[in-house]
């Protein structure tokens, strides 16, 4: 019998893990996990290699986690380049291999987090008042960090100032 699964008469001893809902805004994020995967959605990205990246952020005196999928697709090359640039792994005009993504493990960058409903086809972005009813986070933008300083409070999530991207 496989010990990785419960039987109906087994006892559950673990406590529930608390889910932290991040407010939309900018955070200092540290890459804590990178998983090489393949998209199995059945849609237009089916079979596409991807890197599922998890970042840890400090929030309200604790830690919260937010993940993003970096699809290794030519039409999303801009996002891979943005990610690599945010960690200092790619400079403007410099070609680098996609596996450089793995070199971001343990490094910091600034991320802009949004919240959306997984059921909302229009991907409505929620206000801070509405976010407590929403459970899906996403990373909108990866930005290069000049020096590590935790952002303890969220700020305006607008990314209209190109200077923070370094190009």
List the SSEs and their pairings.
Elements (H helix, E strand, L loop, with lengths): L24 E14 L10 E11 L2 E10 L5 H10 L21 E9 L19 E8 L24
Antiparallel strand pairs: 1-2, 1-4, 2-3, 4-5
Question: What does this protein look like?
Answer:
- It is a single chain.
- The protein is globular.
- It has a five-stranded antiparallel β-sheet with strand order 3-2-1-4-5.
- The chain is mainly beta.
- 6% of the residues lie in helices and 31% in strands.
- The C terminus is likely disordered.
- It has one helix and five strands; from the N terminus they run βββαββ.
Brief descriptors of the model:
167 residues; single chain; mainly beta; 1 helix; 31% strand; 5-stranded antiparallel sheet
Uncertain stretches of 5 or more adjacent residues: 118-123, 152-167
Order of helices and strands: EEEHEE
β content, as a range? Answer: 25-35%
Query: What is the alpha-carbon Rg in Å?
Result: 18 Å
Main beta-sheet annotation: 5 strands, antiparallel
The spatial strand order of the largest sheet comes to: 3-2-1-4-5
Average pLDDT for all residues:
76
> What is the tally of helical segments?
1
End-to-end distance = 56 Å
Could you tell me the number of beta strands? 5
Overall SS class? mainly beta
Approximate helicity band:
under 10%
Shape annotation = globular
How would you concisely characterize the structure shown here?
This protein has one helix at 77-86; strands at residues 25-38, 49-59, 62-71, 108-116, 136-143. By secondary structure, the protein is mostly beta strands. It has a five-stranded antiparallel sheet with strand order 3-2-1-4-5.
């Amino acid at each position: 019998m496989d010990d990785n699964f419960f039987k109906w008469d087994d006892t559950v001893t673990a406590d529930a893990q608390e889910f932290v809902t991040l407010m939309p805004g900018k955070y200092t994020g540290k890459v804590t996990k990178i998983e090489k995967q393949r998209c199995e959605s059945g849609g237009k990205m089916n079979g596409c290699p991807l890197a599922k990246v998890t970042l840890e952020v400090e929030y309200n005196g604790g830690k919260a986690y937010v993940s993003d999928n970096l699809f290794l697709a030519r039409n999303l090359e801009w996002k891979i380049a943005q990610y690599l640039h945010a960690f200092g792994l790619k400079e403007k005009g410099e070609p680098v291999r996609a596996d450089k993504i793995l070199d971001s493990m343990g490094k910091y960058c600034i991320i802009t987090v949004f919240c959306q409903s997984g059921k909302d086809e229009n991907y409505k972005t929620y206000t801070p008042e509405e976010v407590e009813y929403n459970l899906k986070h996403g990373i909108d933008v990866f930005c290069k960090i000049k020096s590590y300083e935790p952002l303890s409070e969220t700020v305006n999530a607008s990314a209209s100032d190109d200077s923070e991207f370094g190009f």
